[in-house]
Structures are given as structure tokens and as C-alpha cells.
Amino acid sequence: MSATTKLNITTNRYRFHDPVNFVFQTPKGLNEQVVRAIAKQHDEPDWMLEQRLAALRLFAAKKMPRWGADLSQINFDEITYYARPTEQAQDSWSKVPKKIKQTFERLGVPQAERKFLAGVGAQYESEIIYHRLKEKWTKLGVVFCDMSDAPRRYPELVKKYFGTVVPAGDNKFAALNTAVWSGGSFIYVPKGVQVALPLQAYFRINAPSIGQFERTLIIADEGSSVHYLEGCTAPVYSRDSLHAAVVELIALRGSRVRYTTIQNWSQNVYNLVTKRAVAYRDAVVEWVDGNLGSKVTMKYPCVILKEPGAVADILSIAFAGRGQHQDAGAKVIHQAPRTASKIISKSIAKDGGRTSYRGLVSVSAKAKHARVKVRCDALLLDGRSRSDTYPTMKIRNSQTAVEHEASVSKINEQQLFYLQSRGLSPAEAERMIIAGFLEIFTKELPLEYAVELNRLIALEMDGSVG
């Protein structure tokens, strides 16, 4: 029996696509009329439309990044920036249109909600089509809603925090997202509330040449905690799609926020995401970031340690196969004394794929007694693949403890020989070694997500994800 059969792996769970049928969509290309149409679909207040139009001007003025992965093939004129699959989001799974419901059932979203989640949101193309928070958390004042609804339902919170962590002018793709964003999650956790179960969102691109530009804003009030899980997939098409999300986290005094992502985009998706958090006094922000699939990924979760005692913990993996470039990493900005950060990055490249670790740690002159630890490890599975490391350290005071280590290695032939001598096939032995290499990451995931990651790694090893 083959390793694939034993693991019960099937590519159909990821690579299928549904017939394209929208209740509304904008024409291809980007202009002021498209932006106004998106704002009108959401019935947004004027102040949000003004932010969108200002961001559109910034996007037009900013040049494409000339560092990192090759983005020269992106054609902004061939992308559809907004597509609405249903008239409105539902809070009952039975009311979701049958075709869309079948998509998410095949991806396991309803099962996950029933098993271990406090709430679920499901986005299909540009809009959330299903959203539900369990009553227990609603009674405690927890807000978990479609970001498209938030400016109308919670205007004071959104106006106070939207664009403060990732301003529109931060980079070209942050400007693009601010102009055309749709969907995503808005979360507010009141003071002292500990959300013991994760909240999950799942994002699906179904049609070719579609852009998905969700916006996520999470606010953890003083002494609260929340864990947010995010999954992403798309089918294979010959035409490229664009995913350019923005995530903003605000961790107020003594709070704790964990943001876990497993992205499994197909190899025709440009995955260009800006994710950033601000941590106030004694707050903890954790990014757990898994990057598989996609044609190109450029993503560097960032934490700004703004007040004393704040902590950042960033753990990421990247897997690049044939024709893929995973340019990922992390950033931490120490702005206050007695702050601490840890960055651990793991990457795997095979069949000529390329992984890059791109990191920044900045410690200001005021951030005395800061502690920094960075570790990035790369595993190359053949002689055609490539791994690069671009670490930057800016340390502006002498009272800082800094550790940095990096390694690039190949699979150990002695380990392979030993495992095969114990009855494993060469493919099974290789997968087991990779599982050990990634163990530090998988043990941080809920059980269902860890099992899912192992399946995805096995698919990547077979060269069949998409």
C-alpha cells in the first residue's frame, strides 16, 4: 500500500471549482467608479469612502516593489476587484446557497464549527457569505462580524482604529487594499474577557482573475484574550489571481492575541499580504503563520512593541515547490523598555522552488533591556532548489540581549537509511523527517489544523497541491 493511500490524501478537496455565478460584480480594472461601486454595495458612511478614494490615489502614485519576489507579471487591468456571490451573509448554514455551501462543506468548515470553534466566518470571493458567533460569547460582549458591516454597526471603534496600524500609504498593496477592501473579520473582545475557544475565518477564491482583498481588524481590550484561525484556498486556473489582504491587530494593556494562518493558495495566486500588530504594556501578540501553495508569497507579520513589557512571538513556515517563490519572514519594532521578541522561521524548498527569509528587528534607543531571539532554518530537498536569508538588525542601545542563528541543510542520508531499514518507503521516510523539521510549528496548532497541515505537506511532496 502506498504512503498516499495510507494517508487518505485527495487533491479534490482543494483543486475543485464551482460554476461562476455572481449577483453583482464590477468590470475588470480599477478606477474611481469601481471604488464607489464597492462602497455603495456596503452602504458605507462617507468617511470610509473618502479613505478609499484617497488610497486609490496613493496606489496610482506608488511604484511596484523592486525587492523581493518578481511581481512584473501582475496585470492590474485584468483583475476583477469585486464580486458578490450572494445577496447577504447568513447566520444559519441551511440558508447559504447550495453550491457555495457544498464548497465549504468539502473544505470542512461546518464540521470545524461544530467541533471546537467559538465562531466561524466564511468568505467566498469578495464577501462573507456565512457568519456566526456562539451565543455564550455574544452575551459577554464579544463582537465577531463581517468587516463590511462594521463601519455601520460599530462606527466609533472602526473610525478610531481602522488604518492606524497599517496606513494606506504604507506600501502599494496596502493602498490597493484600503481602496477596494471587502469582507474580512472585525473582532472586539471587551476588558477581561477570555475567549477560550478559537474564532475562525475561511477565505475562498473560486473564479479566475479575481482579486480578494479582505480586511481584518482585531481589538483586544485590556486583560482580554482571543485566538483567531484563518484558512485560505483557491482552485487552479491558467490566469492569475491576486490576494492582497491587510490585517491590523491592537493588543491593549495586558491582553493576548494569537493569529494562526494556514494558507494553501493554488499556484496561480499572487499572495501579497500586510499583517501588523501593536502591543501595549504587558500585552502578548503571537503570529503562527503557515504558507503553502501560491505562485508568489510576500508576507512579513510585524509587531510593534509600543509599551514596556510587551512581547512578540512569531512562528512561521514556508514550503516552495516548482515555480513557486515564498518570500516570507517577520518584523519586530521594539519601542519601549523590557520588551521581548522571538522569531522562528522554517522553510522547505523542492523541485527548483525558492524560499526567502526576510526579517527586520529594530530596537530603539529607549528600548533598554530588550530581549531578541531570531532563528531561521531552511531545508533543501534537491540541488535545484534555493534558499536565501535577508536578516536586518538595527540595535540602537547597548543594553539589549540579541541572539541570531540561521542554518541551511539537506535531508540527512543516514536518517533516511535508518527509517527505510525500519520498513518505511523512501517517500514515507522523507515525509517523516520533514514532519520532525516542522514539529515546532505543528505542535502550536489545534489538533484538526495539525492533521490538515500534515495532509497538505504530503500533497506538496507529491507535487499535486492546487
From TrEMBL:
Xref: InterPro entries: Fe-S_cluster_assembly_SufBD (IPR055346), SUF_FeS_clus_asmbl_SufB (IPR010231), SUF_FeS_clus_asmbl_SufBD_core (IPR000825), SUF_FeS_clus_asmbl_SufBD_sf (IPR037284), SufBD_N (IPR045595)
Domain SUF system FeS cluster assembly SufBD N-terminal, first and last residues per copy: 109-200
Record domain SUF system FeS cluster assembly SufBD core: where: 203-437
Protein name (Swiss-Prot/TrEMBL): Fe-S cluster assembly protein SufB
Family designation: Belongs to the iron-sulfur cluster assembly SufBD family.
Pfam families to which the protein is assigned, alphabetical: SUFBD_core (PF01458), SufBD_N (PF19295)
Alphabetical list of NCBIfam families matching this protein: sufB (TIGR01980)
GO BP: iron-sulfur cluster assembly
Source species of the chain: Candidatus Buchananbacteria bacterium RIFCSPHIGHO2_02_FULL_56_16
Lineage: Bacteria, Candidatus Buchananiibacteriota
